[in-house]
Specification:
- With about 400 residues, the chain is of the alpha/beta class.
- Helices cover about 50% and strands about 10% of the residues.
- Helix 8 links the parallel strand 3 and strand 4 (about 205-215).
Length: about 400
Amino acid sequence: MKEINIRNFYSTLTGYFKVQPDWDITLYISLLNVVIVVILIIAISKIFFRNEKKSLFVVKQLSIYFSLVISITLLIFFSVFYTVYESYIYIHNLQSVLILLCIFQIIILISIWNKTIKQIRSNNPLFLGLKLGPNKLHDDNLYLVRYFNNKKMFFIVILIPFLLIFLKPGEKYLYSIVFDNSGSMDVQNTNALKALSEIIDNLKDNSSFVISSIPFCSGENDCIKIIMNIKKNMKSITAVNDTGSLVSNTVVFNNKSELKNYLLSNEIEITSASSPIYECMWDNFSKSLELNVESTFDKKRLIVLTDGMDNLYDPNPEHGFKMPGNCITGYSINNIRMDDFYNRITFIRYFNSNQGVFNTCKDLEIIDGESLAAIKSGFNNELRDIYFDREFLIILFLLIIISFIIFYSIK
């Protein structure tokens, strides 16, 4: 589990307020929250306290109290659910909005409770700061104080939504990612590594990654040896049973921290060993199949970052790679097709090119990757179902606990 210290907590909290939220969704959530509170106040006063023989002041105060508790509970439920089960809040940067809405309602709740107790005991009851006229009967005032004190435990219901964290089944995710780090990918490869490393901390722990790239070669002789081993056609690639003979550097990570260290260690450097993208994909697919036998994954995705040029730089057709008529994703290992194995296959295209891979893989999703922002957006879209904003949940939980302590300290 990622360590949460004071510095991390402070930077996370301030970071939420520095990031601009999705204002349309913010407006909808805020208005809906207000509407819910108003409807609850009316409904509770008319339905649950319709036979209440106490004063209007008593009924309204009780209605506001229960309405705010229910509203905060629904807000926390929404926050926990769409953090644990979905990535909606993280994707739309709504953490600061939800924190502020929660704080605002808690302040009102505690303020009304505190003022009510003091005003009743001073025998000068007010409703939202306004005098109600003649003092109410003494027994009504005492009744409200006793009722409030007896119903303090109702505040605990706000903590119930956090149980959702323990109710979600332990899904496992497998993400196969292929980097095209050939000579034409200099800036784009750097952007891809940076984009992925920046979002790794918010991925769930129960995720595995199979990362493939073109092997690095430092000298002409070294590069020639690698190039001479590159397969000339699709048949020779898909016929390989021993993936160690493929021109690909594939590494498996079952820990997101190790993956981040790998991405930041410059292990995936620009190489002159041509562009055997299909060999990298096939090697990645083979190792992903082996990994799935050991640990069955609920969701599996393949992400390929490339400009689509698979060994097309050799002008001699006899030596260069011969592009097939169909995409490699239609081929199979042990009767398991690549496009059947993965729940989703996506290409992040570095350039606006329709050559090579993109000519054959026409039915797959191809998204823009011409800039750092575009690549990061692509990763956000493809990895969104394994985002987990642990810090946000901790902030909400601590907020409720602090409020709970303040609430119970009111005498």
